[in-house]
Amino acid sequence: MRAHQIMTRSVISVTPDTSIVEAANIMLKRHVSGLTVVNDSGKLVGVVSEGDFIRRSEIGTGRQRGRWLRFILGSGKSASDFVHEHGRKVSEVMTASPVTITEDTALAEIVDLMEQNNIKRLPVVRGDQVVGIVSRANLLQAVAGLAREVPDPTADDDHIRGRIIDSMEKNDWCPFGLNVIVRDGIVHLSGVITEERARQAAIVAAENVEGVKKVHDHLCWVDTMSGVYLNSPEDDELAKAS
């Protein structure tokens, strides 16, 4: 998937001269956590977000740095902090020259950019004009939308079993002696694991196969040094109930 398939097209923008109070009110009224900042010609010049309003003099949350730290950081940093905490216009608190993407940017690249730059939204530009915005909420909607995709017509028990085995065998955490039984979309996993985290990985791998309705865990954990083994938590519960 690419940006144009998930982006929000109706982008709410302000100008560099918009007041801080007005920008904050727009975010509250429109239920958004960030705004693009454009100049008179519509060119993107910055982004302002709720994070830019955390350190503000009005609410007494300005940074309080000790004398030694102020000396190390220098007067320039103190001056920048003062502007950010006391500024009255969006241009004084916004992130200038923000990271942007195009309509054809792949979702994997979008996620990488968000993580690398520690940001929650990316403006989508065509040339220097904003045509959309992709936020974490858009990514969440894309994940949720997968549940509405057309079911796989080949997702019968035999195909499900084969796909589960294929998806696990390519990983180094694959259980030893893996056995998969599927009846009417209900999966039973058995085999031996030597790392407890492999249990959840195996269950998730099975759950991600189209047509799987439920996964039963019968994986046995074995300590390779002592030979001690433990049944799966599910099998232990069944044993207690019987």
Automatic annotation (TrEMBL):
UniProt keyword annotations, A-Z: CBS domain
Residues in CBS domain copies: 7-65, 94-150
A UniProt-annotated Pfam family: CBS
Domain spans labelled BON: 156-223
CDD domains assigned to the protein according to its UniProt record, in alphabetical order: CBS_pair_BON_assoc (cd04586)
PROSITE patterns per the UniProt record, alphabetical: BON, CBS
Protein name: CBS domain-containing protein
Organism expressing this protein natively: Bradyrhizobium campsiandrae
Top-level taxonomy: Bacteria, Pseudomonadati, Pseudomonadota, Alphaproteobacteria, Hyphomicrobiales
